[in-house]
Predict the structure.
Amino acid sequence: MPELPEVETITRYLRDGNAGLPGVLGRTILAADVLWERTIAEPGALEFIRRVSGQVVETVGRRAKYLVLRLTSDTLLVHLRMSGDLRVELEGGEGGAHDRVVFHLEGRLRLVFNDARKFGRMWLVNEPESVLGRLGPEPLGADFSAGAFFDLLRGHQRRLKPLLLDQCFLAGLGNIYTDESLHRAGLHPNRLASSLSPVEAQQLWAAIRLVLNEGIRNHGASIDWVYRGGDFQNTFRVYQRTGLPCPVCGTLIERRVVGQRGTHYCPVCQPEPG
């Protein structure tokens, strides 16, 4: 948490503005304060401050769970990890207890990275592929077809749940959207990827894209204090619904650990492999 829909929501907020405040697109970074040096993965904190100052935010985008801000000379990559958040606010405020990096922008604005658990990271790089190159395909990408997905699946003797969470296999999915996608596709999280038929692979491909797009339309899911403002949690079918009836068949939702992750599923709609 946050996963692809939450990161996409933040991306749009930074690009287009929100709650009466403008976005950061086209604004010059006048200066930066690094309040927790370990937030900066590359380069060192002092070099980060020196290089980022004076650069203009030319584009704001997303790759998997990374925010990608292309600047005049470099690219700023931000991974929110467990508890990271970015907010735009007016200069002069008091700030937050867990603020880690502050960018001072033209127009008396600042972009603040807040991270209570201190796991979030930033990279300022010339070549973003040095960080992003290991990632798998974007599940919402125009070139990510059902046929290509089937070809990926049949090459893996791994269970579906941990495979879909592997960012090198498919980029952007986390616990929430994996559980919801598998339920929509009627597939047990313990199914071997290589056992799926072309039809089942197509069903899972469609379910992943459907669930992610629904998440984006609902501004992501708000399930704790870390990420706020989303409504997708109100339409969960299985995630965190242990002991509640499946909305399709009425069977009680079960929870088990798969690949060291808590996993929610319907034992009837998602029959366990024999």
About this structure: Residues 146-265 form a domain with the Helicase, Ruva Protein; domain 3 fold (CATH 1.10.8.50).
